[in-house]
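Protein chain data
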Amino acid sequence: MSTTYTPAAASTTLAAAAVSSRKDLRPWFTYERISKTRSGKLRSGDGRGGLVGEDAQHGENVAYVHGWDPEAQIVDWRDNASGWDPKVWRPDWETMLEAIGRGECQGVVAWHADRFTRQPMQLEQLIAACLRGNVQLHTRLGGFHQDPTMIRIEGALSWKESKQKSDRQKLKQGTLAMEGKPHGGSRAYGWNQARTKLVDEEAAHIRWAAQQVLAGSSLRSITAELAERGATTATGVPWRSSNLGTYLRRPMLAGLRVSHGQVVGEATWPALLDLGTWEAVRNLLESPDRRVSKSAPRVYLLSGIARCGSCGGAMRGRSGAYRDLGPAYHCETAAGGCAYRRADLVDAQVRAAVVERLAQVNAYGDLVPAVDTSERATVQGAIDELEGRQIAAARLHMRGQITEAQLSAGTVEAEAELTRLRRQLADLETDARRPAAVLRGLAGEADAAAIYDAMDLEGRRSVVALLATVTIHAGARGRQYDPSLVVVDFLT
């Protein structure tokens, strides 16, 4: 809001002038509103199909007031928000209504009724505030609305226009969704504006990021690498962990069309990721076991991976855990732990064993087993059968053969089972794809040690967890490090 008048500062002057001359010395309020589109461009209607910006509205409103009172003081209120959506909060509108209700102006003017609002309920609030404050209600196009009937009609017509436009847009979006077509809007990263072709360089970045997620890398490290590569989002800003994680979970990447948060079928645009890869990535990103906090990243290679040889509990890295011996792995038990080993020495021993295994000839073929699709096919078959039963139950309900209560109870039970089966299928898809993603370009390479050492901590942790179990056995504290108490058993 911009103003040339302060009610509190002028209250004494106004009171004195009112007694002497009875002239209304209160200022005039002008209100301008313009809506911002998704693209960031501004739009505003003049009530007749034209476009009028905030400054143009203001100029006309001020000229309207000064047409009969050139000395009138003006308090200008503005909002850059929708007047149709009741969920949108307009700060200047709300504050102005309160000031009008207190009688802090002699009149309020907007270009047209729909510049005040397109909601009949809000228009009634404005009319009521004007009555309480003894304030005149004007529009540049309609003049003085001493009888609010006409402005109510204008407001109702504006509401009807917005409602019809909203209904048309919903119908259009629903049709586009069922046809698998894009909904328009800003360009999606990885495709051209029309979403008919892939942008090769962007698609390569997303595919690389997906493989890094499968390989166990953190979103933090992935976005850091994307920044080094000079990759930015479709709007030209650097990728952040949060928006990359959200983007990688979008069904659009797998060529699926979504409407109201639900996948409704295949899309017309080319898929950027194959369905299995996307499902595995989404499963990993949505897993409750995945670290999603914004706290400091992990610093211990074997935290949560190594197990205690005495009780089988998880070993955790901890700094300064025992006297002055530095960071160490401890068994976390109620009794305070039954195993302890220096972290640096354990990490070095495990690294040596892992890189030796990685450098072996044909290690990639040995370590990445052939994918067994039989279990996935069984689970998918169970999903298809259950979905078929749901359709059959709906048909029985339509024929009156089962009640609505029976259909509802069966649907709740079926949806719970479908959720479980889909999670199981996603887990199987992830388990099938992770080994190849983790070991690609690493296993069987002559310089496997250098490649492993160059990986970030999350990546090295994924390699260790995939290849081996690490068991740390208890021993006398303070003794010289005994490598025999740290056992690395390879899983393949």
